[in-house]
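Marked as duplicate of an earlier ticket. Keeping the data here for the record.
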Amino acid sequence: MRDYLIERLYECTKKPYQKYFKKSEPWEVNKSELLHYPENSLGFGLGTFLFKNHFDIQEKLEDHDIIHVLTNTGISVYEEIGMQYYLLGNGKKSLYLFMVILSGTLFYPKKLRYFIQQFKRGKRALPFYYLDFSKMLFTPIESIQQSFKI
């Protein structure tokens, strides 16, 4: 039930967040094209992630799925919350991030140890959350992970 509530909250806030807070332009690529990128590249990794999880590219929210690929984070509700803890540890600060962390911590108090672990992982990595990943789609995933200690 709590997973459902968190997912509904996300669905209700996603459109306004995309429209009013995300100033970036949508990427000019579709998920099928991503599978034609070099096999170890960020673009191919993103395409694989999207197909494997039956997702589509979310306009102006492409970076979110890139973070999943780079940090190797799953897609369950508590893992999504953990990824926000990771990003907080990495230096990202936004109203949306704080809303997810607050609501997620209240709904998943038993996952607090996992959330703290994710925060520490993000803290150990060099800041990368702000990068323009659309220009890095041909870059090998491993190269990005090593460069930023992800």
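See parent ticket for discussion. The radius of gyration is 15 Å.
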